[in-house]
Amino acid sequence: MRLALREADLAAAADEVPTGCVIVADPGEAPACLAAVKILGRAHNQTEMLKDPTAHAEMIAITQAAAALGDFRLTGTILYVTKEPCAMCAGAIVLARIPTVVYGAADPQRGGHSLFGILDHPALIHRVEVVAGILADTCLERLQAFFRQRRRNDNETRVGVCRCGGGQPPSTPVE
Q: Is the CB of residue 98 less than 8 Å from the CB of residue 79?
């Protein structure tokens, strides 16, 4: 999850929503050291940079992992992500047959797991084991700090703008 947090920091530095994702080959038992873990994909949100609404961290990392394995079926992998996957990403996770998802901060407003139940929906052939809340406070703090700063920037931009005129500067009265 710490590698996913590093990716989230890259997203924030690029003025993207700070979500990071890492997909690793499932090492089976806990590896003796992090160096023993094989990283198949790692990414951060790039929707603003690429002008692509699908350029979420999970989607990019899934594409990288599929290329690394030469197969869209990502069985034998674990996906770590700093924020609960949205419905789109949860659907991609199911289609990629990723067996385990570990996420940090929950997203009760748009979460593909907590709100829509996509990752373990009984009607789907593939169900995902979900481990939620890993480093949740750290992941949530990154998101909250990003949106606090974004609101500050938005408020600074609006200084001197009349809110009653549809966001237009106040007009000069005609004499």
A: yes
Contacts (Cβ under 8 Å, ≥6 apart) of 60: 21, 41, 43, 44, 46
**What is the per-residue DSSP string for 63-121?**
HHHHHHHTSS--TTEEEEEEE--BHHHHHHHHHTT--EEEEEE--TTTBTTTTT--TT-
Structure tokens at 138: 């750290």
Domain ranges within the chain, ordered by starting residue: 2-165
**Both tokens of residue 84?**
């609960």
Whether 56 and 47 have beta carbons less than 8 Å apart is answered as: yes
- Helix axis angle for 57-69 and 87-95, nearest 10°, is 10
CATH homologous superfamily for the domain 2-165: Cytidine Deaminase, domain 2 (3.40.140.10)
Which range (41-45, 46-50, 78-82, 169-173) has the least confidence? 169-173
Q: Which residues are catalytic?
A: 58
| Confidence check: pLDDT of 32 > 60 | no
Measured CA to CA, the distance from residue 131 to residue 133 in angstroms comes to 7
Q: Which residues have a Cβ under 8 Å from the Cβ of 156 and sit 6 or more positions away?
A: none
Cα–Cα distance measured from residue 98 to residue 112, given in angstroms and rounded to the nearest whole number = 15
